[in-house]
Design goal:
4 strands, two-stranded antiparallel ribbon, flat, mainly alpha
Length: 523
């Protein structure tokens, strides 16, 4: 339970009031604050959305900050998932709620590499609240300057994933800067983008509701507008070259590169894929650019989608060209003639004789094509099937042998973890995890034989004592703990254990010496 927790300010980033908590709590070390907030010291802290957010929410519920408030009101989660599939949003929500085991969703994190702030905002916050803080809106990719003061946003050099030091309050950064940087007059494109980004941030619920009402897909909306602008056919096929020229003319290459949205000539441009592949999710900035290209602004696009979704959310236009019976018969005859002249009685061999006939029939009469073609040939070769039960028994024995080998290895003890055991077995973790259900005994043996950090440290202390005795060094407690690699912060915790190990070792040596003396005097 937290003794206190600071109340968030207007437009404050979640990471910001975690930094303020670290300062006001008086903790000297970041790891102590991490343990209080997230229950673990060694966790990386992502400045966008911290992992293990559900643990933090349990701590802050007493001060009126629920999990949903932390996630939606004080991070950019709602902005970054505006145009994502609901299944994807639920998956990410479940990760931060600690309900599923998907990897951390880095692609919904802030695309900018460093935290940013406005110096005038910092001065105003200091006068009003007594301290400056990180603003949530300043961290949006594509935002060129502060929405309130129109001054340039300053990148402070703090990466979004801090490794060693984790808490950087804004007060520790702004004290070193005294001059407010000037910003050039923004171009029309950048002003329009700035306005649309803020519109999306402030109207996320409305945008999300319209997007979901369109079956979580704006593909038909985009294609309909492209057709109206003469950039697509009536059947919604893109005029690709014309579309690229129009987009580059509207925005300019320099502007698109500044928001990380210029297409690579070696790959299929995103501006094609966003109109053709409804199964993928794209960053919010790219949907904003499409809205500006096709309708002038995000608000205009929403009005068009709201008015026309009943008409447009249907199947894409289908070619109404009728297939004449004589055309169908002609291609069927060509296929049969090709089958007579083919070198082998296989579909690929016949298609090699007349590929045009194969493609036409595949598109227009696939049922007849397969009914009048040779059956697929099975490839030769032997298929080896592993006996999973025997494999499980063999690997279980190998796991025990590997653990014994690691414990008997000379030198400083290695931590026996699951990954180390798998490496010794020559197994890749990704392939091994896919067979988890079939190797139940192996996995049980691994879980039973892996060491906790406490067990590993105790084994290192025992090794340090034995190593010191072998070299006839003094068994001082601090020397033993330092040789074992125990952090000085943990000395008070392991001091008593180290003393007990030293005493047991000295007693065993004494008994061995006494036994040796008795054997020497016996006749």
């Amino acid at each position: 339970m937290l003794a206190f927790f600071p109340q968030p300010y207007r437009d404050e980033l979640l990471y910001s009031f975690l930094c303020r908590y670290h300062v006001h709590s008086g903790n000297l070390y970041d790891c102590d604050t991490m343990e209080q907030l997230f229950g673990m010291k060694a966790q990386h802290l992502n400045t966008n959305i911290p992992a293990h957010l559900s643990y933090l929410a349990k701590q802050t519920e007493e001060v009126g900050l629920s999990f949903d408030q932390l996630l939606y009101d004080y991070t950019l989660f709602s902005y970054n998932t505006l145009f994502a599939k609901q299944q994807t949003v639920d998956s990410y929500y479940g990760y931060f709620k600690n309900e599923n085991n998907v990897p951390y969703p880095h692609h919904i994190s802030m695309p900018i590499s460093e935290l940013r702030y406005c110096l005038r905002c910092a001065e105003e916050d200091r006068k009003r609240y007594g301290e400056a803080y990180w603003h949530r809106s300043h961290q949006i990719a594509g935002l060129q300057c502060c929405p309130k003061h129109q001054t340039a946003l300053i990148s402070c050099g703090i990466k979004h994933l801090s490794l060693a030091k984790k808490f950087f309050p804004l007060e520790s950064v702004t004290n070193a800067i005294h001059e407010i940087p000037l910003v050039r007059e923004l171009s029309t494109e950048k002003q329009r983008l700035q306005k649309d980004i803020l519109f999306c941030l402030e109207n996320s619920q409305r945008i999300r509701s319209i997007f979901c009402a369109c079956n979580e897909d704006f593909t038909e909306i985009y294609l309909s507008l492209l057709e109206q602008k003469g950039l697509a056919t009536e059947n919604w096929s893109l005029y690709k070259e014309k579309l690229l020229v129009s987009a580059e003319k509207s925005f300019g290459r320099e502007f698109l590169e500044s928001v990380n949205s210029y297409w690579n000539s070696d790959k299929k441009p995103w501006i094609f894929r966003i109109c053709q592949h409804s199964s993928r999710s794209y960053r919010t900035i790219k949907h904003i650019l499409m809205a500006e290209l096709l309708s002038g602004s995000v608000e205009n696009l929403l009005c068009y989608a709201d008015e026309n979704r009943q008409k447009l959310v249907q199947q894409r236009p289908v070619c109404n060209k009728k297939i004449l019976p004589e055309t169908l018969e002609k291609y069927k005859q060509r296929w049969q003639d090709a089958a007579k002249h083919a070198a082998k009685n296989t579909i690929s061999a016949i298609a090699a004789e007349d590929n045009a006939a194969y493609l036409w029939l595949f598109r227009h009469d696939k049922v007849w094509l397969y009914a009048n073609s040779p059956a697929p040939c099975k490839r030769g070769g032997t298929v080896s099937v592993t006996d999973c039960e025997e494999d499980d028994e063999r690997l279980t024995v190998l796991v025990e042998q590997v653990v014994r080998k690691l414990k008997k290895a000379s030198g400083k003890p290695q931590w026996i973890t699951r990954n180390r055991i798998l490496r010794e077995l020559g197994q890749e973790e990704s392939n091994f995890n896919t067979r988890k259900n079939k190797l139940a005994h192996t996995f049980a043996a691994i879980e039973r034989l892996t060491e906790s950090k406490h067990e590993w440290r105790l084994r290192k202390i025992q090794w340090a004592v034995q190593d010191s005795m072998d070299y006839r060094e003094a068994l001082a407690m601090w020397k033993i703990l330092r040789k074992a690699g125990i952090s000085e912060k943990l000395w008070t915790k392991y001091e008593l254990l180290a003393i007990q190990v030293i005493q047991r070792s000295e007693d065993s040596v004494r008994r061995l010496e006494e036994q040796t003396e008795r054997m020497a005097f016996e006749p």
